[in-house]
Amino acid sequence: MTGTDAPAWQQCGHLDAGERCRGHRAGSYTACLAHLDSAERAAYLATLTPGADLDHRGTPFTQSLLDELLAPLRDPGSGRARVGGASFDEVRFTGDAELQGIDFGGFCSFSSAVFGGGVYVHDVHVGGDFRLGAAQVAGDVWLDDTDVDGDAWFYETRIKGTLRFHVREVGRGAMFKGMTCGDAYFSGVRTCGVASFEGAVVDGEAAFDGAVFEEGADFQRVRIAGRACFDGARFHRGAAGFGGADIGGDVLFAEARFAAEATFDGAAIGGDLSFSGARLEAGVGFRRAVFRRTARIGPLVCPGRVDFSDAVFEAAVTLEAAAREVRCRRTRWASTAALRLRYAGVDLSDAVLEFPMSVVGRPRPFVSPEGEVIAEPGLVDSRVRVTSVKGVDAAHLVLADVDLTGCLFVEAVHLDQLRLEGRCLLSSPPVGLRWTRRRTLAEEHHWRATRYGDGWTSAPPGVETPEPAVLAPVYRQLRKALEDGRNEPGAADFYYGEMEMRRHDTAASRGERTLLRLYWALSGYGLRAGRALTWLILAMTATVLAMMLWGLPRADPEPVSAGTVDGRRVTLTTKKPEPVNPEGPYAKRLSTARFEKSVRVVANSVIFRASGQDLTTIGTYVEMTARLVEPALLGLAVLAVRSRVKR
Known about the structure:
It contains ten helices and 51 strands. It has about 650 residues and is an alpha/beta fold. Strand 50 (about 560-565) and strand 51 form a beta hairpin.
């Protein structure tokens, strides 16, 4: 209602500078309380008794007039005024307004009132609603040692000074939607209904330490220029919503309790975000939030999900959290970041890293600033599991002491620059003689599960299964990342995985795949010394048997010399007979002497030397083959050993 609109009550007939007073007529009189003469006012006040209702809407007030009005309502023994319902809507109060020692049996309303000074309420009990909605206060508003059994209405109230709302308990809801003030203090307030601060503007700091919100609190789009303190606050049953809030300073939730989800979606936070000792029964969301100068978040303990999807970190930040899941999908880090985590499954899908960022699994619990260990209820598996780096430019990413058994790497770029520090676990093939023990990617498990079934992990719902042609480059880049970090043994498994994917790539030529199969069968791509040595022993055994059965002659040929004597001149010619193939039963050929000679031939062939032993034609070809094959197998075995011990 504007000043030109006719009020909804019987209006005072007093004219001031041609304008009619908007005050409500006092009793049966034609003027409001402020414009009654002394005799009329005394007569009107004499009609009031403790517990009477008051209706002085639109009336001009001063503190002395208010005291004069309350005097007949005070109990002589206690000195407390007893009022029924009190309507002071649209009053114009000159100077400060003080209400002290008053019991309102019903509501007390100052809606749309204008105060030239401050409003000070002390030791007051309101049996119904307390309304200050749309009021304008030139000074502070203090409510101390006060109880409100109904709702507290401060809808669109304009307070130029400080709001100190130290009400012990609000029986129903508290409405501060659209309110503006300087500093705001709600320390220790207990609100039994929903508390709404949607769109409120606090030009200074705000303190809600020790406040209790039985049905949750709505801080959507609230704007606080300074810090916001919620230390020890309790959010029971209902959610705590800070969506779209803009807080210029630190946000403190030390020792706070959240029974339901806390949401900061779209919020802008200018300082640190502390959850030291806080207990969150459900999750907490920071989707699309902007952290302007936030240097630290946490320690945050949450048995549910902590969601930073689409959030933006504009400054260097350290995040400490113990949670079931930390989701950072499409999160943008415009400066360095350090994530120190416990228990969590971390999803970094499509995150944007403009500067170095590390994800580290923390082995020890977090501690409070006082050095006390912070409890971690509801969390049982202390491993930190990175579940996805899809779409991430890994050039700035460092993973340390994390579990990568379920991590998705496909679609990440610059994986060759990814740094894996500490003990990073990867999944293994199923147990059995069929599968070689090595570190594998989760995507390979997903692909093999479609072919071999049991033992291999299937892809989760909604996750596509990549083909070997896609996985081979991923293995190659990860291998290079470890090689650049001087971790040759660790890179060997990734090389094995790369070769496996190439061998199974149906787009490759048949000749290439055949060559790879042969390489795999003989030595496990030059990485399995046992396999190469087994083939070497088999080849040497076969060579020894071949030499004993067919390669060694029946007897070593003896040189024969023949010549002529002509006077004093002697001419001699020495010839060595051709080796004679062995004869007789095979069993007789397997003698100790022939075994010793065969072993000597084979031993020399392994080091690529001729044995000097006279051999049959078959034995010569067998030795030539052995001198080609067996040194190669020995070399593959040596290569495999070197790949496992090289640093």
